[in-house]
Structures
1.
Amino acid sequence: MGIITVKNLDFSYDNETMAVHGVSFSIEKGSYTTIVGHNGSGKSTIAKLLLGLLEKKSGEIFIDDLPLTQENLQKIRSKIGIVFQNPDNQFIGSTVRDDIAFGLENHQVPQQEMDPIIDEFAKKVKMTEFLNSEPIKLSGGQKQRVAIAGVLAMKPEILIFDEATSMLDPQGKDEIKKVIHDLHEDSTITIISITHDIEEVAKSDDVIVMDKGKVVLTGKPEEILLKEKQLISMKLDIPFSLKLQKALKTNGIKIKETITMEGLVDELCQYASKK
Ligand code: ADP
């Protein structure tokens, strides 16, 4: 059993249409899983169900072997952190330090123990020099890094990013993607990234594709990304790197297939150096 196991999950907001229907999946401990789908496919609803913010209509949810019940709710919530889309809605403190402290205060961490924890996680997201800054002085990417530090300070076992980069400019997006990938490499935390952006799939361990409230595909990125027709039919498209490879192939340029942009750049450099 994975750290998260979901079986036959159903949920409806209005008792008529199913926002989530017959959803089953399992997420391995320590993995980086991307849940991808077009807007309205049910991804955020799944995140809210996992956190017990919405109550399932039927089905089962197990987090770290614990069934998600009213009785286990607090225990389960302490295992999961979530970073949302809008950095402005997540900033609670008047400075970065206060903001990271907020969750610790809620967890009744003694004042004298807080500072080293805040320093540790501010360093992890490279925000140490901004600890006394006000939110208004920060970019969107920096605000999201603070939100990540605040959640990490709670030491969750599972960290969910719900469209956490979608409101950021390209530089902010890159900053946050790097923080997430570094976290995955340096820790045993389980990461779930929820996104409508197919570009974010290539670097994950596992992928869950949702459409119209259902899980339609699960697998490794290299399997999923080859299903071009199916992805396009779900308004997901294929990543730019694969489109470029197709164009190169059409023009007689043969390189080894790769799903990441970095892989493609490597292959193109090798191709160019042989010319
Ligand atoms: P996604 O995260 O993939 O964009 P959501 O989980 O937000 O999708 O939405 C799934 C479905 O549930 C959509 O049809 C959406 O319109 C509906 N929905 C989402 N939130 C609410 C809500 N608070 N009340 C009613 N319907 C909702």
2.
Amino acid sequence: MRSIPIKTTEEIEAMRHAGKILTQTLDLLERSIKAGMSTKELDQMAEDFIRSYKGCTPGFKGYHGFTGAICTSINQEAVHGIPSPDRILEAGDIIGLDCGVYYKGLHTDACRTVAIGVVDHDIRQFMKITRKSLQEGVKQIKPGGHIGDISAAVQTVLERFDYGIVEDCTGHGVGHELHEPPEIMNVGIKGTGPMMEPGMVLAVEPISTMGEGDIKTAPDGWTLYTADGSLSAHFEQTVLVTEDGHEILAG
Ligand code: MG
Ligand code: MG
């Protein structure tokens, strides 16, 4: 198994800078998004914003041939939706906005799911709880803790509300590669898995559904959607393991 990279002070400084811009990109998208917009418009907005900072580029663009600066996953789409001028947002949709900023050879990665206009209370609750599962997972991040502590915390929150967990998708280490060791499952057992050490940077990302956790791949080869057609939500943060706990770098 490949070892988990430990970042240098310089690398952490670069990721902190990129992470700040990534968080601001998501803030901008969340503020601007409305019915009638295409997912391509959001994509362009994100790309322009990221590139307005010297040395920063959208980390997803060109990744294994992905064409967007962001992934836009609407309703039953769980992850990796491709921005398109033909996908127009409607009131009542929910959309996952997943984005990465690349700076000085390092990636950061974060996602939020937001609603377009007014959505039903149970959908609001679903998004809120998925975000809560991320927060509870991130709370486990500290030196001496195990990766399984994160997984177990995410799973506990989502299962308490009987939401589906997309087990085929996982969180991951992030740095010189967008996806590095370790794999961070969204189900797991406390006290198992690799031990966390200061300097590790982890992307924690619960992906939940209002039904079952099974997913299928769309004909575009990228978009993963729920097999039962239920809504899906996705939240992600890039988090540094510090000497005495953690620091959220992005999201
Ligand atoms: Mg992501
Ligand atoms: Mg990720």
3.
Amino acid sequence: MQQTLPPGIERVLVTAEEIADANRRMAEAIARDYAGRSLVLIGVLKGALFVTADLARALAEVPGGPTDVQLDFIAVSSYGNAHRSSGEVRLTQDTTHAIEGRHVLIVEDIVDNGHTLHYLRAMLGNRQPASLRVAVLLDKPYHRAVDVPIDYVGLTCPDEFVVGYGLDYQERYRTLPYLAKLRPEVLPA
Ligand code: PRP
Ligand code: 7HP
């Protein structure tokens, strides 16, 4: 059946079902690696709101995974209202709990030029966690400015500006259940 898309959206790139499959695959790998341990997931707001929630629940459905999973959130901003990163990352909200001695998994929606993740790895790594890894739903490797290790990848993102499932353009489109390409006329040249 033909789907009616909101104004500004050209086409769906990744369906809600494909996103759920990617989260399940990441959850299985994470469950294996953290079996019998206590794990803290740190979701990076606002974009990773949905992937953090869905990955956490997918993880709870895998038998034999971590003994317990705690959630925390951090907020950073580097894109402001633009569709290109300023490269300057700002911490806008810190976690609520200390992570010293804890196994920590940063959960991101997308890694593009890599500045955000580079900043977060360095900042959280300085706090002496027992371990620090990264799970990313979308790896967008075409314009990487800094090399950042990613431990769990859901999907490779097409070389497009994508919105939906947490990803925004000027704070719009975050609540779409799929990932979509914007119409080119919506973006500045
Ligand atoms: C987006 C996205 C990632 C970051 C990735 O966040 O959610 O956190 O950009 O970009 P990079 O790899 O090029 O640094 P944004 O700064 O737009 O904030 P938001 O999550 O609140 O939308
Ligand atoms: C950040 C970001 N936000 C939304 N869509 C994209 O394609 C993006 N790349 N980096």
4.
Amino acid sequence: MSVRVPDSATVAEAAKFLGSGGLVVLPTETVYGLAADAANEMAVRSIFIAKGRPSDNPVIVHCRDLAHAQAVSGLWPPGALELAKRFWPGPLTLVVPRSNVTAPACSAGLDTVALRVPAHTVFQQVLRASGLALAAPSANVSGRPSPTRAADAAADLGDSILILDGGPCAVGLESSVVGWPDGRPTLLRQGGVPVRDLEAIVGPLANAAPGDRPLAPGMKYRHYAPATPLRVVAAAALRSLWEVERRRSTRTAWLVSTESGLRGPDVTVIASRHDAAGWARRLFAALRDADAGGYDTLVVEAIPEAGLGAAVMERLRKAASS
Ligand code: TXA
Ligand code: MG
């Protein structure tokens, strides 16, 4: 079994393995990451192979602290330092000019590099034990929901890879990604830091233009998609849909709020509809569990788009699109 308790021996083993070009799955506070030495071109390329990730989709480089992040990148744009000081370690990624310290594969041909200082103790221990910067996309097979439990990473990537089990992820959604594509601070991906909190530091964020050349290349690929067809339904329409579905022979899984009042063997109550952080924390695991349950359809209740609710709803809309 490759899923291991992260004690000092396994942390040392993971660090050594990474230093020799290997891949290791590590917990972060957002989602589990598939890590490799960010300075080792072949190691980073092997991440793309393991995930089935398109080669034009760059990966995030994880650093132990702010000084380390600055040492592996070029000159930062105005506002980047303020964001890093406020939100690192934590669920924020900054896209800044690259330097030659990181392997070209991390940037997938772009002249920028995405940087993050993760908060999870186990990831920090491995960063410090290895002394490396670690390239790490989410540890799922491309197109599957990001793993928020060690077992989810194992289900996607197989038993042969070393996985340090740091427990369920506290945030449960990927990091927010901010870049400066035209000099203005721009939201490239919604995530673990609510937009309002980012804007309190740098002012209004421009929005990455949708289209076929999105600024975060990952956003053009279908993401977070369960194999079972998924519908997002307004809270007000849930009860009548429930009555209709009950009279049909198809099997439906329901992912709903406490307030919905729905209960039953096919119902997963995620959290209060006003607890967006609770939804963020449990959503991907619930999607994976429901997807594995042999249902014909998944119905997920829409929640208010306040705070993390906006990022939760963005993930749900993507999971629902076909
Ligand atoms: O929370 C997270 O961000 C997790 C954990 C493991 O840190 N990582 C993660 O990585 O979600 P990934 O590869 O699944 O998503 C990274 C996103 C992608 O949409 C990618 O296109 C974008 O960041 N990205 C990476 N480098 C970029 C760059 N240089 N310019 C623009 N977007 C970039
Ligand atoms: Mg991902």
